[in-house]
Write a structure and sequence with these properties.
Shape: globular
Distance between the termini: 20 Å
Radius of gyration: 21 Å
Helix content: under 10%
Strand order of the largest sheet: 1-2-3-4-5-6-7-8-9-10-11-12-13-14-15-18
Number of strands: 18
Order of helices and strands: HEEEHEEHEEEEEEEEEEEEE
Structural class: mainly beta
Length: about 375
């Protein structure tokens, strides 16, 4: 038994478990896997507290070698039952789960599910799950860019709840409906008894083309304050033109009530939105280059509060180079620049509209 377990671990190549139930190589019984991603980032603003701007939650420590995320995971799949449990550590954990109870902050995944039909691919999963929103995940090697976009860092990476998912027979269409505890929450907000809901539609026209539409509806305010409902939509399209060229285009838009009222008018709503375009070029099997252009506009500060007259209105650009040292080892380097409508950054010890930083990372999966 011990020898068999060792050979199973040696032969296993880590597969990312995304929020959707699209078909993968199915592994019977129990599999142990892991991922470690270290990084170094240098911010030209020279922050004394070693923290990059507050709207970054990943790769956000300045001028120190650190761990973004490291986790060990056990995945079980047999017959019509499946489950995942993973524990993690790193600066991602420290900042993304700061509002959770201490005992929950190191849980990356903890969910169980079973198949509802013998004829159709319908699953019911419950627990702590990867987010159904967005094309960027916590696991860096699965993302085209080294650092996460402003869009990704300010929408859920994880969620807790129940998910009903369906995959069509040809595996091109995936549909899901979710009952959630809130916006990136394991535990419900203090004093809040309001449920939240989500949906996902993912369509793969071919192996090269994917379209996704995810939604979220919920209220994270305490009941004593009243309900400020949030309505959020995430769209993205990924297309691989050929073996060398691919692009991803994404758009998020959110609307939230400014005050508790049954009569919803546009004057009573705050709106924020974000757009992103990523172009990736692979000159060789081991090398990839990705260019990212992004914008984020949140004038009322619903997601990113600045306290300035124009709110958060920021453009971003980045360029990264990836080199696959081994099949399971990835080295990356990225330069990134941000330009804002107001002086919300620091540059040369002075308030500035601009922010520049370099990041490099080394990741291994096993």
């Amino acid at each position: 038994m011990i020898k068999r377990a060792i050979f199973t671990l040696m032969g296993f190549v880590f597969l990312r478990v995304h929020a959707q139930d699209t078909a993968k190589t199915r592994i019977d019984s129990l599999v142990i896997s892991g991922y470690v991603e270290t990084y170094y980032s240098f911010d030209m603003g020279y922050p004394n507290n070693h923290l990059r701007p507050g709207f970054f939650y990943s790769f956000n420590k300045h001028n120190e070698i650190n761990l973004n995320i490291g986790f060990i995971k056990a995945a079980y799949f047999k017959d019509n039952v499946r489950g995942n449990f993973a524990l993690m550590a790193g600066t991602y954990t420290q900042f993304n789960l700061a509002h959770e109870q201490p005992l929950l902050r190191n849980i990356f995944e903890a969910n169980a599910g079973f198949k509802l039909s013998n004829k159709r691919n319908v699953w019911l999963d419950a627990g702590i799950l990867p987010s159904h929103i967005g094309f960027e995940s916590t696991i860096g090697k699965d993302c085209w860019n080294l650092t996460r976009s402003i869009l990704a860092d300010n929408s859920p990476y994880y969620e807790a709840g129940i998910k009903l998912g369906y995959t069509s027979k040809n595996e091109k269409l995936y549909l899901a409906a979710l009952y959630l505890n809130g916006w990136q929450r394991i535990q419900r907000a203090q004093g809040n008894q309001t449920p939240a809901f989500g949906t996902q539609l993912n369509y793969k026209a071919s192996d090269k083309s994917t379209f996704n539409w995810s939604t979220y509806i919920g209220n994270d305010q305490p009941d004593s304050i009243g309900s400020l409902w949030r309505y959020f939509n995430n769209f993205y399209r990924q297309f691989q033109v050929n073996k060398k060229f691919g692009f991803t285009a994404g758009f998020d838009i959110g609307i939230q009530q400014k005050r508790d009222t049954l009569k919803v008018l546009m004057n009573d709503m705050s709106i924020w939105h974000s757009t992103i375009l990523i172009l990736r070029y692979a000159p060789t099997k081991k090398k990839k280059i990705a260019l990212r252009i992004e914008s984020y506009k949140d004038i009322d500060g619903v997601i990113i509060a600045t306290g300035t007259s124009n709110g958060f209105q920021t453009l971003g650009y980045s360029l990264n180079l990836d080199y696959a040292v081994r099949e399971n080892v990835l080295w990356r380097i990225e330069g990134r620049a941000l330009a804002s409508a107001d002086k919300i950054f620091m540059l040369n010890n002075n308030p500035s509209k601009y922010n520049y930083f370099l990041t490099t990372s080394l990741a291994i999966s096993f």
